Each structure stands twice: as C-alpha cells, then as structure tokens.
Amino acid sequence: MRMSLIGIILTFSLIDNIVLSRLLGICPCVGAPGGMRMTAATSVATSLLMSLSALAAWALETFLLGPFGIEFLRIPLFVFSVACIAGLLDLAARRMVPQLLRAAGVPLAGIAFNCATLGVALLVARASFTALQSLVVGLAAGAGFFIALSLLTAIREKLEVEKVPSWLQGLPLHLISAGLLAYAFMAFDRAFLSRLLRGW
Questions:
Q1: Who's near 153: CB < 8 A, 6+ residues apart?
Q2: In the chain, which end has fewer C-beta atoms inside a 10 angstrom radius, N or C?
Q3: Which stretches of the chain score pLDDT less than 50?
Q4: pLDDT, tens only, 101-156
C-alpha cells in the first residue's frame, strides 16, 4: 500500500482510530477502573504489543502464509503470535523492571486478550504494508488507543462527581460517552488528511 509514514500515523491514530472507528478494544476504555497513571501504563504496554504484533503479522504473512498458500491459518497463527509476544514482554518486564510493572498494575499477558491487538495484526496482513510501515501502523494504532483511553478516562472521572440518574450510571453512561466521542472523531476523515498533507 502506498502511504507515507505521516499519513499512516494520522490515519491510524485519528482517522481510522482502532477504538473509536473500528470499535476494537473498547473493553478497557469503558470498563477498566483507574486514573490517568493506569491509562498511560496500559496504553504504553498495548502500543508496544501492537507494534510487535503488527511486525510479526507482516513476517508471518510475507514468509509463511502467502508463499505456502495457507492463509486459512492466519487467525490462529496471529492469536498464537500475539500471546507469545505478550508472554515474552511480560517475562522481560518482570526480570528487568519489576518495580515499574508493579507500580503500573498492568499485566502484559492480560493485554494479549485485547481484540484491538489482533485487529491491528489483521489490518497489517490484509493491507500489504512493508515491515517499517507495519511497525509504524502498530505504534500509531497504540497512540490512537492512548488518545481514546485518555479521553474516556477523563470523561469518566468528570462524570463520577456529577449528578447522574441511577439507571444511567456505570456502563450505560460509559458506552454513551464512547459513542459521542466516536461521533466527534468523524471530523477526522480522509479529506481532512489530504488537506493536511497537501502542505507537507
């Protein structure tokens, strides 16, 4: 796919936001407790996992699935690779920075079950990106995840101190907030991107 790196970053962080446009990985955004510190830790871990999973998806698609014609194994192989990468990252973090991992309170192995990670891997495989583009797609999707998670956390913290009817508290209000935020993100469209990049 022919797209500049800046175009990829803007597309996957704003225009085609993995949470707000594709509704993947919405679970931690609407249901996970915790403040901005937990949000930042979850976002960094998810972004790292997304970028490595996207690179692994590119490698699997380029060197194994495509040449041998076994595309029907794409999803099981991607799920297995995401789980392996998450396990290795968790193991490395426990050995190198255990204090940081405890302070963040984010189990890296648990982030492997976030469907956004698998979604990014599948997007990379189907779009025929290069290795560098795949890595950037993963990082940009992680940045988009951080933007969505930060905004929804800020909205949730603000709504906790407001008077809200009892029947609307909790998940219903979080889903309404996510829907309104997704609607606001519709302002970032491909025409916006082309106008923005015309000056670069």
A1: 34, 35, 36, 39
A2: C
A3: none
A4: 665 666 666 777 788 899 999 999 988 899 999 999 999 999 999 999 899 888 88
At residue 129, φ and ψ (nearest 5 deg) are -80, 160
At 197 the pLDDT is 67
Domain of residue 83: give its range: 5-198
With tokens 């204090």, the residue in question is: 99
Exposure string of 6-29, with b = 16+ CB inside 10 Å and e = fewer, is: ebbbbbbbbbbbbbbbbbbbbebb
The pLDDT, as a whole number, for residue 199 is 58
For residue 17, the number of C-alpha atoms closer than 13 Å in the C-beta half-sphere is 26
Domain count, the chain: 1
| Residue 46 tokens, joined | 């998810």
Cβ contact 141:12 at 8 Å: yes
The C-alpha atoms of residue 179 and residue 23 are separated, in whole angstroms, by: 10
Q: How far apart are CA 179 and CA 20, in angstroms?
A: 8
